[in-house]
Amino acid sequence: MAKLFRAAIMGPPGSGKGTICKRIAQSFDLQYLSSGHYLRESIAANTEAGVLVRSYVERSMMVPDHVMTRLMLPRLEQLIGQSWLLDGFPRTLSQARALNSLCQLDLVISLNIPYETLRERLSNRWVHAASGRVYNMGFNPPRVKGKDDVTGEALIQHDDDKPEALLSRLRYYKDVAKPVMDLYKSQGILHAVSGTDTDRIWPYINSLLSAKMHIQPSGAFQTQTPP
Ligand code: G5P
Ligand code: MG
């Protein structure tokens, strides 16, 4: 049986975690778990927990650690014999410690994207509120301007993606992420990747995963190494 492989991807809002995770999951056949996706699912279910979660996510504030670990850890426990990839969890030291008590990660990728790039991307970001599907007017526009590809419903823009709100979100992200990165650095599993374009950093991540997993990617997203 192939060795299990567990990885997580960290990065500020808009850094491309979701875009890159989808490529990794497709190329390397890993189960993909996104904290944002499960939060939106719980909001849609409109349970007591979902109502609480909504009050944080709508303001782009961090959901409390105990809510996050209760949401994520049981799902990981169910994947006990499988390889997986986490998008957006853990985000705090407390979440990282809770995850560590369940299993040891093999690789953590941290996306280091310049502020100007994030600002530009998020100001072009439109979302379908009900599903959380994300579009970018330049990079992956919807088929019909202003409409969700699946439902045809109107897309919206978050107030939190405006420049002033974004700057404070990014500062907060840095403060909270630093001890998490220090922990993974001390375990020798942190790989930081810098760049402005997902398509240009993807070949590096592709090679890194191939080397770590000792396999050839199956490859929908194999691209050329940038010059
Ligand atoms: P999420 O859903 O994890 P965020 O804010 O961390 O939300 P987000 O917005 O999902 O992160 P991303 O996944 O890092 O961003 O990036 P993405 O969606 O792939 O890309 C961003 C945009 O840029 C998209 O429009 C994409 O098409 C475009 N893009 C990508 N690459 C390029 C490129 O090369 N060029 C260009 N031009 N565009 C590109 O979490 C949501 C909320 O849930 C809570 C928080 O409230 C959070 O705000 N939450 C947690 N709270 C506590 N602890 C946790 N662990 C939590 N996890 C989630
Ligand atoms: Mg995302």
TrEMBL record:
Molecular function terms, GO-annotated: AMP kinase activity; ATP binding; GTP binding; nucleoside triphosphate adenylate kinase activity
Chain intervals for the UniProt region annotation (LID): 124-161
Subcellular location per the Swiss-Prot or TrEMBL entry: Mitochondrion matrix
Family listed: Belongs to the adenylate kinase family. AK3 subfamily.
Catalytic activity: GTP + AMP = GDP + ADP; a ribonucleoside 5'-triphosphate + AMP = a ribonucleoside 5'-diphosphate + ADP
Family annotation (Pfam families): ADK (PF00406), ADK_lid (PF05191)
Domain Adenylate kinase active site lid: 125-160
PROSITE patterns: ADENYLATE_KINASE
Record organism: Dissostichus eleginoides (Patagonian toothfish)
Keywords of the record: GTP-binding, Kinase, Mitochondrion, Nucleotide-binding, Transferase
GO biological process, one term: ADP biosynthetic process
Subunit structure: Monomer.
Region NMPbind, residue ranges: 34-63
E.C. designation(s): 2.7.4.10
Gene Ontology, cellular component aspect: mitochondrial matrix
PANTHER family listed in its UniProt record: NUCLEOTIDE KINASE (PTHR23359)
Binding site for GTP: G14, S15, G16, K17, G18, T19, R125, V134, Y135, T198
Function: Involved in maintaining the homeostasis of cellular nucleotides by catalyzing the interconversion of nucleoside phosphates. Has GTP:AMP phosphotransferase and ITP:AMP phosphotransferase activities.
Protein name, per record: GTP:AMP phosphotransferase AK3, mitochondrial
Highest taxon in the source lineage: Eukaryota
Main location: mitochondrion
Binding positions for AMP per the UniProt entry: S35, R40, G88, F89, P90, R91, Q95, R169
Record comment regarding domains: Consists of three domains, a large central CORE domain and two small peripheral domains, NMPbind and LID, which undergo movements during catalysis. The LID domain closes over the site of phosphoryl transfer upon GTP binding. Assembling and dissambling the active center during each catalytic cycle provides an effective means to prevent GTP hydrolysis.
InterPro entries for the chain: Adenyl_kin_sub (IPR006259), Adenylat/UMP-CMP_kin (IPR000850), Adenylat_kinase_CS (IPR033690), Adenylate_kinase_lid-dom (IPR007862), ADK_active_lid_dom_sf (IPR036193), AK3/Ak4_mitochondrial (IPR028586), P-loop_NTPase (IPR027417)
